[in-house]
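ligand=NAP
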Amino acid sequence: MNAKKDKFIPEGSKKLLQKELDHMEKPVTVVAVLSDDQNKPFNEFCRKLLEELASLSDKIRPVFVKPDSDLAKKYHVTRTPTILIEPERYAIRLTGAPAGEEARTFLIALLMASTGKTVLSDASKKRLSELKENRNIKVFVSPTCPYCPLQVILAICAAIEREDLISTEIIEIYENKDLATEFNAFSVPETFVDDQPVGTGLQPEEVFVEEVLTAAPVKIKPFEGSGMIEKDLVIIGAGPAGLTAAIYAERSGLHSVVIEKGNIGGQVAITPLVENYPGFTRIGGKTLMDMMAQQAIQYTDIHQGEEVLDLERKGEFIEIRTNRAAYTVKALLIAAGAESRKLDVPGEKEFQGRGVSYCASCDGYFFKDGKKVFVIGGGNTAATEALYLKNIGVNVTVVHRRDKLRAEKFLQDSLAANNIPIIWNSAVHEIRGDKFAKEVVLEDTHNGSRRIVPIDGLFIAIGYVPNNDLAKKLGVKMDEEGYIKVDKAYRTNVPGVYAAGDITGGFKQIVTAVGQGATAASTIFDDLSAPSEKWYS
Ligand code: NAP
């Protein structure tokens, strides 16, 4: 075997990595319980990763043991690979290899375990200090899920902050299908506190901390304090439009903040591959958005996990209340994007997260090894998701309601080149199953006949609906599909309120979203410098 090939931390990344590992303070013992027979490639991955990391820092001290060893028995480890981080002090367990998106999380966990310092806010630390009972946190993840790493970091922070009471286990669903099945955790990240499901997806820090305290799901509430933060501009949404607007706004001298309730990067962050953003022939959606976010934070703050819950116009200002703070601003840019459209058929809701998904890069990994999956839709998203699923080894078929795809020619050709079958003129009538989706009832859109087809999973990619609830509260005008109406300069009909990106409808591309964000920021600067009366009407 080629020795060079065996090294999977690329030479170019090692220097950067070493720089980060230089921040380690105390040595961290990492117990890796590995075996040769169970999950072999993942066991090998863990061994190599830990050996290479240990070669970069003498503060990382791997200990390799077998499942029948005394150490494995002492910590009740029966699965391999399992990694325990500084187990004499912390109860942090990775059940499954920290591959893909989780590799970086693993490094952050090592750094935090070494310094004993976490990235939680002071308020969260204070709240966690009030915990009086033991808690066990489980987070189910997959290596390709862009939402998982931040949820995992929250869970690991909790185990470090309350090393006396909190244990955290991160479970990779592909290597541990039986556990995923037992807990019904197929839509990742899926979090459990004391084995109670508390939430799917990435959660705001405050919500997560309350869930740890109460061991139950928690509803997000508006900030109740009195202090108002003054800014020129609040930008709602950290997708391409919002991030670009932030860069342009701050560079022109406006003080702004970007508020993002979910994942930085919006829909693009869950797009497996982007091939039409100039300058990049092929780039992962998450990587592209991480680069944009890195650039934006050179200029402004991005508040992830903060959700705008209420807003109101007050004279020339707009007051905005989130779960964390209250702001008063002269301008508001709504770049809140859009969310996946639902099919609205029986079984869709019931089996969401149990075979029905809207995110191939999050949940596709579970279906590799030839599981039979349908992708519903005929647009660019359906084609991109089908290609991604095929590429990771899923047995994928596209189901479209017409006899022609709407996806661009390049993607249609790729579907054909990859031998991805398409079932034409068919609509999903019903999704059926028991614990998990098992079959779909397809209806012929020409003659109405129905047939039952067994499947393992269903990825729904039938377009988006705009996230327009906040715009509605301000009386912003919308078209019949709910997209915000704007003028050429991205002003809405409400003075001081602007909109950019997918929420304005039309041609939904990254390249148009960044253009709209930049134009909107420039308009805001002009309007705040010399107030305009020309609002969209
Ligand atoms: P889209 O272009 O609106 O296509 C939605 C597809 O779903 C259409 O084929 C539509 O069928 C079908 N559909 C809609 N409602 C349905 C229902 N109830 N039942 C069954 N099928 C239904 O949405 P998209 O593909 O998500 O793309 C959204 C935007 O993002 C587009 O502007 C797209 O160009 C952009 N995007 C671009 C890329 C890229 O450039 N690589 C990648 C992803 C997304 P009909 O065709 O019959 O209407």
